[in-house]
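Note to self: user wants both folds in one dump. Writing first protein now.
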Amino acid sequence: MLTLSSITKDYPTAAGPLRVLDGVSLTLATGEAAVITGPSGSGKSTLLYIAGGLERPTSGTVELDGTNPYALQADALARFRNREVGFVFQDHCLLPQLTVLENTLVPTLVGDPDPEARDRARVLLTAVGLEPRAHHRPAELSGGEKQRAAIARALIRSPRLLVCDEPTGNLDSQTAETVADVLLRLQARQHTTLLVVTHSTALAGRFERRLAMAGGRLEEA
């Protein structure tokens, strides 16, 4: 379960602190999927990064299955993100010098040896339709293929939480639909809690639970 309680986030400015999030609370059950929409600058990406352990809130608490990542020391927080959270961004963030298979395996290169990682990677690449492209590099892939590779990489550790920031933002409508199909199918298969931020009404419409961010506050849509 993901629980955000009374989250605030302030950024310093010359005129004083700028409040981006104002007492936001959210609970997602294990395996639940939700989407957040809202105008640019409303704080939705900031909330996503806080939920994923990437950005510390000014106040409030974050818990994933009882663990508060921001109560951990820096090295423990890094391990927590690596093992418990998967990330998919608008830009796929694949490493250009690595093959699709090698990119998928990147999260498993940190920490203890993971002898089953390569087998899991191949299963995931088959699931996202990229097994024939496993030994291609990102420059040889289409935009949709790159995002499907990014989804496989995000799920290689079987994380408890998957956070996605505009995962179809750079794609045409047909490719975006394919990527959304892959994302939601694999999330359901792994029973991973999923939180997505998007401007896309088509993607948002795929979710039963929809939330809206405005003025630093979050409401059920």
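First done. Writing the second protein, which came from a different request thread.
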Amino acid sequence: MREPHSERLSDILKRLGKNHNPDLTLGDIVRELGERGFGALILLLAAPNLIPLPPGSSFVFGVPLVFITAQLMIKQDKVWLPRRLVEMKVGGGRLPYLLERLVPYVVKVEKLLKPRGTLLTSSYGERLAGLAGLFCAIVLLLPIPGANMAPAFALCCFALGLIEQDEVAMAGGWLGTAATVAILILLYVFGTAIFFFLRSWISP
């Protein structure tokens, strides 16, 4: 288990929220987050999906999440993103607005989290979380109405578990992943039933 960080994530996010530079890029944020890169970036990109967003926004957040979770799965030391994503501008009013809404919740959750490691926070557990996170990130990319909340919740829990080395948060991530699978199965079952009903109704 890693040693706890001296600076809280909420403090880093508050500092980022004060940066109104319109040329701020995703690469700048990666450098600012430093060793917290994987967990903090996953949280930063997944949390907006917990609130109503314009159509297509989940795809914008989901693409970098796929790269980040895949690297967590293979135990990459540092976050790597394609140049196009590194140079993607996230400055202006968008990032401060998102962080203004996110930081108060992070502060509250941080009070409940503490380093308590088991298999879930081990190196093996983190790789499995990366696999589950990759699955959830791919689901976020899909245009499925009502299917964003559970994978976004799972990713946020995994992120907080990685940052604070908290097994309870990691367990929350696995519950969110299970809920995502259950929702997809239900959508498939109901979708298939509706399809066959309509086909039988339309067919002579």
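Dump finished. Worth passing along: The chain has a mean pLDDT of 81.
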